[in-house]
Amino acid sequence: MTRKRLFIISFIVLLLAVSSSLYASATDKNTGASEQKRLITMAGDIEISESEFEFYKANIKLINQLNEAEGNFSFQTGIPSDQELVDEMLKKRLSVQYARNSGITVDEDEIIEVVNREKSILNSSNLDIENQALIQEIMKQRIKLTGLSEEDFWKSDFVHKEYESVLYIDKLFKDLMEKEEISNIQDFEKLQIHLLEQYKDTFGEH
User: Fold this and answer.
1) DSSP string, 136-162
2) How far is it, in rounded angstroms, from Cα 158 to Cα 9?
3) Which of these, 57, 108, 148, 172, could form a disulfide with 99 (CB 3.0-4.6 Å)?
4) CA of 63: how far to CAs of 32, 56, 104, 174, in Å?
5) Distance (Å, rounded) from C-alpha 27 to C-alpha 35?
């Protein structure tokens, strides 16, 4: 898989997470301070709110609809079950937690650098033309749903936090590769599955 395709896939995944966080925050604020945030899972330091989950699911559907409309099946993901969606969200959060517990750090300058770089790449003509239109349309829809301007979207705390998570996972992957504890992305995915299984053994199914 080429570096460019890895960027495209990771960017779409990131947009899902970022949009979910932004939407969840806005929803929680609109419910009033006295009303508790409804959670579908919470154990240890990990929690996923109902609003985050529902928006994540809606975004998966949106991507598939846009792909169908464009006749582009490169990113056709299908609609996973609710449990599969929750598991994917948990695996990413558990991976960040694992990275932090392993001594991996991410500083603010790194986050700002990668946000600026990814924003620049997205608007670059160097992306594959067929996929660029799709990605830009997804981006347009994300910004519209958050109610933020493009400038405010990229400057938001939520975007920074999600890129922080991406950096933690990226650093963890590289660290494990350098230590020869994994050999490829498939091994890393097995680690994530193992973390999820440990989580469920400790706290039960979610």
Assistant:
1) HHHHHHHHHHHT--HHHHHHSHHHHHH
2) 20
3) 172
4) 31, 11, 32, 29
5) 11
